[in-house]
Specification:
Blueprint (H helix, E strand, L loop, with lengths): L2 H28 L2 H19 L2 E10 L4 E10 L10 E12 L7 E9 L2 E4 L23 H7 L4 E5 L1 E5 L2 E5 L1
Parallel strand pairs: 4-6, 5-7
Antiparallel strand pairs: 1-2, 2-3, 3-4, 3-5, 7-8
Length: 174
């Protein structure tokens, strides 16, 4: 074997070993409590910016083999008094992700489950509500809100055992 081929073989083997080590390190880090807490904090910050409320999440898990994320104990507090029910609460939010090609956007939501959602909109005597304003102004878009929701292309959506309270009138959501 010539000297050039030996160098090329050593470089190729070294790069292959480096890629394998990086993949193993990624798998190890993703399964740590530190990584789950970091992702949980980023989700809380993003939802707080989008809603303007204060967000609490009891737990976050991700099952890599099924590409499933589960958020348990999601609570969004709006402008309601501390003794009142929060603006939104769900015992379970489950998202199953489907991987796509890079040309189609990488991921798609195959299934979304919201179990036991409770929405509580309070209307005060002066007409204002407990719905806060978002901290981050939405980007201007040519699409309506409905078009944006439809573009999410959720394969299947389940809403189970929910309630919606608006100005002390309660309705069931299923």
């Amino acid at each position: 074997m010539s000297r050039g081929r030996k160098i090329a073989a050593i470089v190729a083997a070294s790069l292959t070993a480096l890629v394998i080590m990086l993949l193993v390190a990624t798998v190890v880090v993703v399964h740590t409590e530190w990584f789950r807490n970091m992702v949980r904090e980023k989700i809380v910050a993003a939802v707080e910016d989008a809603t303007g409320g204060k967000v609490d999440i009891a737990s976050l898990t991700f099952d890599w083999s099924h590409l499933r994320a589960e958020v348990r104990g999601l609570v969004i507090h709006g402008l309601e008094p501390p003794a009142a029910a929060p603006l939104f609460r769900a015992s379970l939010l489950q998202v199953d992700v489907k991987l796509l090609s890079p040309a189609r956007g990488f991921v798609d939501i195959a299934y979304l489950l919201v179990d036991q959602p409770q929405a509580n909109v309070i209307v005060y005597p002066d007409g204002h509500t407990n719905v806060p304003t978002p901290r981050v102004n939405p980007k201007s878009s040519d699409k309506s809100g409905l078009e944006t929701v439809v573009d999410l292309a959720i394969g299947r959506f389940d809403l189970r055992n929910g309630t919606f309270t608006f100005a002390d009138r309660q309705s069931a959501l299923n």
